[in-house]
Each structure stands twice: as C-alpha cells, then as structure tokens.
Amino acid sequence: MKKMMTIAAIAAAIGFTGVGPAQAAPLSIPAAPQTTSTNTPQNVDFRVRGGIYFYNGHRGSRRWHRGWREYRGWYFPPRAFYRGGYYRTAPRYYYPDRPRRYYKPRYRYSDGFSRAHYRWCHNRYRSYRSYDNTFQPYHGPRRQCYSPYD
User: Fold this and answer.
1) Whole-number Å distance between alpha carbons of 150 and 123
2) Could you tell me which of 1, 86, 4, 94 has the C-alpha nearest to residue 47?
3) Beta carbons of 98 and 110 less than 8 angstroms apart
4) Which residues are registered as beta bridge partners of 71?
5) Is pLDDT at 84 greater than 70 in this prediction?
6) 130, 122 in Cβ contact below 8 A?
7) How far is CA 121 from the centre of its chain?
8) What's the CA gap between 70 and 60, in Å, rounded?
C-alpha cells in the first residue's frame, strides 16, 4: 500500500508539471566584451636565428636547389610549405623569450701523447685503439703501443 501511494504521488507530480503553454522565444545572447591585446601576434612560420632563416622549422639557403621554392629571397625545401598530413601534424610553438641552453665543453682526457704518436700507431697496427693506447697482436692479450714519438 505504501509503495502504491508513492508511485501515485510521483505520477501526479510528473503529470502536473508540464501543463503550462509552450513558449518559443529567442534567447538573448550578451555581446562579448571588447578587449585589446598589447601583444601582437608573431609570424612563427618565417624567422631568423643567428643569421640563419627558417620557414616552418626548415632551414633556408641562399642558393637554389632542385625542387626548392623561393620565399623572401631564400630557398626552402618543399616540405616547408606543406601543412598538416605527414609533414606537420602537431602545432609548433615558438617561445622567443626562452634563453639559449649552455652546455659545458666535454672533458677531454689527455694522457700526454702527441698527434704524431697516435698517427704512427694507427698506421702501424690495424687494431689500434687510441683511447687506451693498445693494439691486439695476433697472439696474446692487448699490448701498449710504443712509438718513436713517445
């Protein structure tokens, strides 16, 4: 009985809610506020880095190459002019304010041998390795290379 009364109450509530007349009126859409941007958009397709010209990420050349196209006095490969598809599927972002990355020069191990020593050992032994100054003889373990330039 309790279940039947609940169902009847829900049915009555649903039945009486949609009794009013339907109205079809256009919705008023507020106008978008006018904003002025202080930043002007940058053309990221054609840019210069260190005196080298790039178009869509492809390096340009002053010389003509077969199949390349000319743009603003520079020649670029055909792939630079394609949009989408295989060549350029994702957008490229250009961050002009990002500083260049500095890499420390690699440490070069020098064990005191001259270039003439390395050249002499390379010419004399086919299996010579310059980083550990050894060669592999026909019989036995690796041996040190002793040159007249030691």
Assistant:
1) 15
2) 94
3) no
4) 74
5) no
6) yes
7) 43
8) 9
Cα 61 from Cα 54, distance rounded (Å): 9
140 pLDDT tier (thresholds 50, 70, 90): very high
Length of the chain: 150
Q: Give the separation between CA 149 and CA 120, rounded to whole angstroms.
A: 8
**What is the per-residue pLDDT for 21?**
63
All residues at 6 or more sequence positions from 142 whose CB lies less than 8 Å from its CB, including other chains: 134, 135, 136
121 with 115: CB under 8 angstroms?
A: no
Work out the angle at residue 133's Cα, subtended by the Cα atoms of residues 131 and 137, and round it to the nearest 5 degrees: 125
- Return the amino acid letter for 98: R
State the DSSP string of the chain.
Answer: -HHHHHHHHHHHHHHHHT-SPP---PPPPPPPPP---SSPPP--SEEEETTEEEETTEE-BSS--TT-EEETTEEE-GGGG--BTTTB-S-----TTPPPP--PPPP----S--HHHHHHHHHH-TT-BTTTTEE--SSSS-EE---TT-
Alpha-carbon gap, residue 57 to 105, rounded angstroms? 27
Token pair, residue 26, equals: 């256009």
